[in-house]
């Protein structure tokens, strides 16, 4: 098949591209040039603006187009304008932040916790634009970010059959060091780490980047995935304290993790979220329908994250 990636040079994209190329597919990556991924010979690269997709991308028409970086409703409209009725199918990356539980976690809306795990049919956020307050300017994409609008625009039309992948918290080497504030004390051999007690008992589904990339490969190569929405992530979601315990064992750290009220945590490290709302995703649908499974053993993933953190601290 001819498979076109829009984006795909960040965390998960390179693994998906390499895997699809190894399976014998003709892969093209259209990206902004902000990251230089290591692609095998034979993978075609095209540089350009993702907000202005050139017509040359549809000559010849791709069998599957994978959009890794659709952030706004305008992105979805432009995407459909170029590929609807032209490409065979689409795979579009979304996020678990579409769920109502996320809005309540962020205190953007109120209400009791939703039952977990959250299936693909769980209630979605009633609030919109969850990152607008964090946007550096009014014209920044974060001010207009809304995956719910993207999903609806794509799933309410039929001329470009689309698969939606709701990604978890993606972790691994080269990401923004999600666990830095806890791994660094472990690597320094400190005797104690203090963590916010409500956060320690909170659950949020994660996925190692190489594992998450496999969901893209499966969605791109399985025609029956068209028109479906899939949660992606680990099969069981531990508490954050349990994650830290796993990192401690993998790194050989023998210190103590102490839970403390938010009021006793330094203000800079205090987290204001409502941790009664867990983000635990039910990933059984993609496992049953597409055969999704982790590509990397959990222990190996932990070690690779720790080694990346160790190397990053020396730079």
Question: How are the secondary structure elements laid out?
Answer:
Blueprint: E1 2-6, H1 13-22, E2 26-31, E3 44-47, E4 64-67, H2 73-83, E5 89-95, H3 100-105, H4 141-144, H5 147-155, E6 162-167, E7 169-171, H6 180-187, E8 192-196, H7 197-200, E9 206-208, H8 209-221, E10 229-231, H9 240-251, E11 256-260, H10 284-290, H11 298-313
Task: Explain what this protein looks like in three dimensions.
The protein is of the alpha/beta class and 315 residues long. It has one domain (2-313): NAD(P)-binding Rossmann-like Domain (Rossmann fold, 3-Layer(aba) Sandwich). 32% of the residues lie in helices and 16% in strands. The protein contains eleven helices and eleven strands. The protein has helices at residues 13-22, 73-83, 100-105, 141-144, 147-155, 180-187, 197-200, 209-221, 240-251, 284-290, 298-313, and strands at 2-6, 26-31, 44-47, 64-67, 89-95, 162-167, 169-171, 192-196, 206-208, 229-231, 256-260. It has a seven-stranded parallel beta sheet, sandwiched between helices. A two-stranded parallel ribbon has the order 7-9. A two-stranded parallel sheet has the order 8-11. Strand 4 (64-67), helix 2 (73-83) and strand 5 (89-95) form a beta-alpha-beta unit.
């Amino acid at each position: 098949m001819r498979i076109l990636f829009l984006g795909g040079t960040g965390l998960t994209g390179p693994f998906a591209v390499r895997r699809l190329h190894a399976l014998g597919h003709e892969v093209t990556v259209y990206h902004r040039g902000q990251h230089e991924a290591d692609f095998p010979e034979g993978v075609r690269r095209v540089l350009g603006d993702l907000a202005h997709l050139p017509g040359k991308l549809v000559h010849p028409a791709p069998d599957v187009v994978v959009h890794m970086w659709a952030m706004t409703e305008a992105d979805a409209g432009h995407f459909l304008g170029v590929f609807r009725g032209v490409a065979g199918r689409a795979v579009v990356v979304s996020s678990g932040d579409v769920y109502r539980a996320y809005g309540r976690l962020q205190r953007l809306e109120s209400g009791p916790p939703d039952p977990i795990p959250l299936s693909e049919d769980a209630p979605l956020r009633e609030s919109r634009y969850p990152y607008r307050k964090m946007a550096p300017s009014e014209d920044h994409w974060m001010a207009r970010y809304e995956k719910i609008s993207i999903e609806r625009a794509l799933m309410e039309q039929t001329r470009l059959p689309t698969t939606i992948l709701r990604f978890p918290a993606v972790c691994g080497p080269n990401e923004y060091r999600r666990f830095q504030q806890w791994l660094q004390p472990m690597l320094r051999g400190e005797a104690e780490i203090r963590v916010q007690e409500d956060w320690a008992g909170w659950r949020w589904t994660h996925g190692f980047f190489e594992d998450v990339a496999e969901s893209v490969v499966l969605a791109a190569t399985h025609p029956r995935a068209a028109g479906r929405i899939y949660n992606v992530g680990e099969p069981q979601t531990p508490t954050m304290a349990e994650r830290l315990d796993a990192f401690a064992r993998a790194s050989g750290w023998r210190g103590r993790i102490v839970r403390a009220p938010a009021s006793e945590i330094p203000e800079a490290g205090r987290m204001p979220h409502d941790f009664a709302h867990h983000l635990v995703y039910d990933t059984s649908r993609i496992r049953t329908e597409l055969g999704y499974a982790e590509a990397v053993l959990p222990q190996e993933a932990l070690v690779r994250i720790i080694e990346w953190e160790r190397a990053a601290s020396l730079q």
